[in-house]
Amino acid sequence: MLSDNPASYHDAWHNLCVCDCVVVPGGFGKRGFEGKIKTCKWCRVNDKPFLGICLGFQAAVIEFSRNVLKLDGANSTEVYSETKHPVVIDMPEHNTNEMGGTMRLGKRTTLFKPSAVTSKIRRLYGNKDKIDERHKHGYEVNPEYIDQFEKNGMQFVGVDVDQERMEILELDNHPYYVAVQYHPEYLSRPMQPSPPFMGLILAAKDRLKSYFARGCKLSPRELQSDYYDSEDDLNELTVKQMNISIYDHDDSSSAYSSSSVS
Ligand SMILES: NC(=O)CC[C@H](N)C(=O)O
Prior knowledge:
One of its GO terms (molecular function) is CTP synthase activity. By secondary structure, the protein is an alpha/beta fold.
């Protein structure tokens, strides 16, 4: 893209660099995938709050493999089946001929590893031992590489019930770098945000530590939810949150701090 269209390449980088936090979402196939991987790196090395979802989770794994584990050319077999380092691979039940019919779909249970005592994402989920979230994927992290990831600071804190599939990753020594193989957006609601999103926004506003210090409770000002009891109020709140997460850098004057999370 740099040589094809340098102006839009630099625009895209500019847009990324001014964000307070980043979501790398799900998707299929190779279109835009190298950009997703570069975005994961940007967030990792610059301490930017980051949430990867499904293909975004797999992009974070590939980025870490290439740049931290030095596994040159590491990739997903969905994108490049001949890769020397297949760190994301086809799941046995995935059949590419059947239009997604045999993908891993629907609500599934994820177990938090008992060793994940310092995990931010586990605390955001209320320190539960297990959670249920919705899935839609055909590829998974190659279990042969898990030891290497974990020894180098990428922890797989959530796994499936057979403890074979990696569901949630988190980086040591980062303000908020979380990625999930499932789709938390399916169970997220405006007044009940899904924990991975809640953590992302709090980290973007540098409020995650104080949220934990209060036992994962919002402050009294944040609890004025009965104020937002009509649909118009709710729409107003959502718009303010979207504006602030993109543009606002001044806590004291923000609509975010005065009306939703302080
Ligand atoms: N929903 C998604 O993002 C799917 C991710 C990836 N294409 C997979 O099938 O595993």
